[in-house]
Design brief:
By secondary structure, the protein is α+β, with helices and mostly antiparallel strands. The protein is built from 13 helices and 14 strands. It has a five-stranded antiparallel β-sheet, covered by helices on one side. Helix 2 packs across helix 12 (352-371) and helix 6 runs antiparallel to helix 7 (255-281). The termini are far apart.
Length: 389
């Protein structure tokens, strides 16, 4: 391990991340484009109000010529060859034909699962949570610049602030907790008045064995689902769309394009899966049956390799342009108490006092930079305050 830890140092890894220090202090700023500035190291993500975002995307698409047909699909017709979709019939009786279809029917997977009979790869042995309760609540103060995830007896609870409300939810495994107890846990953990009644969601972790078959691609929940511990659903949707555009076929749609698309999307789902599973299997908790199951379960070979590599050498490698970079893996590994046996030989060769002084200087620079940033609330008010209505 690193010299300061070996010699009794106790500073957490987040002391050396400007984004983490700023978030803890309730402050935020956009990254500085000047690479020599300490503020160039800032990284951030968005908290979306999903309803408002969907409304925005709908308006954006329709202004650019997308025709929207409202209705419920009550029948799907296969192509004559049987390996694709010819048309969908709405509850109004109207039939919508097309050359290509995207299955965005959610967990039902009406086109790819129910019509094209593409089976589902079940990952619930690694990700046992299969239910969620979600509810909005009122703010009880300025919105913090981060999502809060809190481990519970049979899963975890989220708190995501947006400008108008706070999103709350409890992810849990029904094999270890019943629905009534799960709702009690949710309500007890919510800060502020509830703005609605909790909404129940059932799901299964995994993905379709094929994402693209014939002339149909599954996108979003129809393609698969990994619980929102790292908020990756939009990322996987975007990857599915972007990869299709990069492979955009002519009318022939040769098989090799489908093979490549399916290979790529399977790899993306597996990479995200491994990072989420890490949060569970690396736990030190053994106070409930759920956590005892998680800490002793077998893991995918790809994750086991990363765990062993980090335990032995402290090294993390990023493969195939995966979503989570090395700092993310290191933060979770160390945060869950996985300490490497040795560190980089170059660092090990340095005097421990020099390393400690360098780390202390870095931590001081992070605190000083964060103190000069505006508060999160004042940044929002000046940069992107929500309008009424």
């Amino acid at each position: 391990m690193a010299a300061p830890q070996r010699d009794g140092g106790t500073a957490p890894i987040e002391d050396y991340s400007l984004s983490a220090v700023a978030a803890g202090a309730g402050r935020f700023a956009l990254p500085d484009p000047n690479p020599r500035s300490v503020f160039s190291h800032l990284r951030y993500a968005y908290h979306f109000d999903a309803t408002l975002y969907a409304r925005y995307l709908r308006r954006y698409a329709e202004k650019r010529g997308v025709k929207r047909v409202e209705g419920v699909v009550n029948a799907v017709q296969r192509t004559a060859q049987g390996d694709g979709i010819a048309a969908v019939t709405m509850d109004s009786g109207a039939q919508v034909k097309g050359d290509f279809f995207f299955d965005c029917t959610g967990f039902r997977a009406l086109l790819t699962g129910q019509t094209l009979d593409i089976d589902f790869v079940d990952w619930s042995a690694w990700l046992p949570c299969d239910s969620a309760l979600a509810v909005p609540s009122a703010h009880v103060g300025p919105p913090p610049p981060y999502t809060r995830s809190t481990a519970r007896a049979a899963g975890w609870q989220w708190r995501i602030p947006t400008q108008r409300r706070v999103g709350n939810g409890h992810i849990y495994s029904r094999s270890f907790m019943d629905d009534d107890e799960a709702e009690r846990v949710l309500r007890k953990g919510v800060e502020g008045a509830l703005l609605a009644e909790p909404r129940s969601i059932r799901f299964k972790a995994g993905h379709r064995r094929q994402f693209w078959r014939g002339n149909c691609i599954a996108i979003g929940l129809a393609a698969g689902f990994l619980e929102p511990l790292e908020s990756t659903s939009l990322y996987l949707i975007q990857e599915g769309i972007s990869r299709f555009i990069s492979l955009f076929p002519n009318g022939d749609m040769p098989d090799i394009l489908r093979v490549e698309y399916n290979r790529y999307m399977q790899k993306k789902f597996q990479q995200v899966r491994d990072f989420i599973v890490l949060h569970y299997v690396a736990t030190n908790r053994d106070d409930t049956p759920f956590w005892r199951y998680c800490r002793t379960m077998t893991v995918p070979d790809s994750l086991r390799h990363k765990l062993e590599l980090f335990r032995e050498t402290g090294r993390i490698f990023r493969y195939d342009d995966e979503l989570f970079a090395r700092p993310s893996w290191v933060a979770v590994m160390l945060g869950q108490g996985i300490m490497p046996e040795r560190c980089d030989p170059i660092v090990a060769a340095l005097p421990a006092r020099d390393v400690a002084n360098s780390l202390q200087s870095m931590a001081s620079a992070m605190k000083d930079a964060a103190s000069r940033m505006p508060t999160h609330a004042s940044f929002i008010a000046s940069y992107c305050a929500a309008t009424e209505g």
